[in-house]
Design goal:
Blueprint: E1 2-10, E2 19-24, E3 36-39, E4 51-53, E5 61-66, E6 75-80, H1 84-92, E7 124-128, E8 134-138, E9 149-153, E10 159-163, E11 170-174, E12 181-185, E13 199-202, H2 346-355, E14 377-378, E15 381-382
Parallel strand pairs: 3-6
Antiparallel strand pairs: 1-2, 1-5, 2-3, 4-7, 5-6, 7-8, 8-9, 9-10, 10-11, 11-12, 12-13, 14-15
Length: 385
């Protein structure tokens, strides 16, 4: 076996023979009659579907050999000659000049119209094991159709993708089949679901957040909304319990459950159509084994198109007479509808501005309690624009 030195003039493998085009050391690189084919040799091969590949770049000095007992009389690539000054210059070149092994002409671009596979040269670097564990660095230097990415995948299909493709930049961590995944998008991402600079977490099963002794915080700074929604259709197969799906539970074993708004208000809407006993739909219930307290600085309104029942061991009704208060029953001079207003959520106000009218209740007996658009209280009555 003899060892030779040469320079790679092309890594384009047009015929798919797994070889480099090399100019032997001391020969004229422009004289293509001196060029030879050097078969690429990997430091690891694992059969048809496993191996490692790191193809040297154009203008890289290499060592190659001629095997005495090889009937094909082929040359074989041994390794790259590392020259600090040369490699520093090489690193500054975005697209090394790669000569066509057939015509000898220089390629001034990273691609050409006659070659849609990036000059038929390898732009991927990586390795695969016999069990299918795979690491791949995909450069793809075609600036118009870049597919640059880095991926790691296990034999069972679990993986990590670091994507540099324009408008798809980001990272994806996924399980086999990608039913469970975490996706991070970059500034220029065109993802319509996640949006730029977003995070998406998907699971085919449960999602669990657990903190042993710390806090779990969800915070938005100058963003949009926090939405917690259960879209269960309850279309489960087999034995199904009402407690098994469709519920949203907030529970504290020893502390408080606090719902606080410093904006438009707190709204609890029960709009379900499911009849529980043949007479009522969804209901709003406040249940306590102790007391129930309601406090308000500007008044408490109660209105029902049905009956209002008040029952207790002792029932006390008191008016602040010192402040001119009084108790009225079926007053004609001051009908209650004039002072009972139904406030709306910000979303309802936006829809109302667009459609012109958005009643929460469809029965016209509620119309007198609505205020258009904004929720403004003027002299005890809601302003109707």
């Amino acid at each position: 076996m003899a060892v030779y030195k040469g320079c790679v003039v092309s890594k384009r493998d047009l015929l798919g023979q797994g070889q480099l085009t090399v100019c032997p050391h001391g020969s004229d690189p422009d004289d293509q009659s001196m060029w030879i084919g050097v078969k690429y040799v990997s430091f690891y091969g694992g059969g048809l579907y496993a191996g490692a590949g790191f193809v040297p770049e154009v203008n890289q000095e290499i060592l190659y050999d001629f095997v005495i007992n090889d009937e094909t009389n082929s040359y074989y690539y041994l390794g790259s000659v590392m020259d600090p000054s040369f490699d520093k210059i090489q690193a500054d070149a975005m697209y090394p000049q790669d000569k066509d092994p057939k015509t000898g002409s220089n390629q001034t671009l990273s691609w050409d119209e006659e070659d849609g596979v990036e000059n038929a040269q390898s732009m991927s670097y990586g390795w695969t094991t016999p069990l299918g564990h795979h690491v791949l660095s995909r450069e793809n230097r075609d600036t118009d159709n870049s597919r640059s990415a880095m991926s790691v995948r296990s034999g069972q299909g679990h993986g990590l993708l670091l994507n540099d493709v324009p408008h798809e930049e980001g990272a994806l961590l996924y399980s086999s089949g990608q039913k469970s995944k975490i996706r991070l998008t970059d500034t220029d991402s065109d993802d319509v679901m996640v949006g730029p600079e977003g995070i998406s977490i998907d699971a085919g099963g449960n999602i669990s957040l657990h903190s042993a002794e710390g806090n779990i915080s969800i915070d938005i700074q100058d963003g949009n909304n926090i939405v917690i929604q259960n879209k269960s259709t309850q279309s489960h197969t087999g034995i199904f319990r009402k407690s098994g799906a469709g519920n949203v539970l907030l529970q504290s074993d020893t502390g408080n459950v606090e719902i606080r708004s410093t904006g438009n208000g707190v709204f609890i809407d029960c709009v379900g159509e499911q009849k529980l006993d043949g007479t009522t739909g969804a209901s709003f219930q406040v249940r306590s084994q102790n007391k129930i307290h309601l406090y308000a600085e500007n008044g408490i309104d109660l209105k029902s198109l049905g009956d209002i029942n008040i029952k207790g061991r002792n029932v006390s009704i008191e008016s602040d007479v010192a402040q001119g208060g009084k108790i009225q029953f079926n007053s004609v001079l001051n009908p209650l509808d004039l002072s009972i207003g139904i406030r709306k959520t910000n979303w309802e106000i936006d829809v109302e501005r667009f459609l012109g009218w958005f009643p929460f209740f469809l029965n016209p007996l509620w119309n007198s309690n609505y205020t258009y658009f904004n929720n403004v209280n003027v002299e005890g009555q809601f302003n109707k624009l």
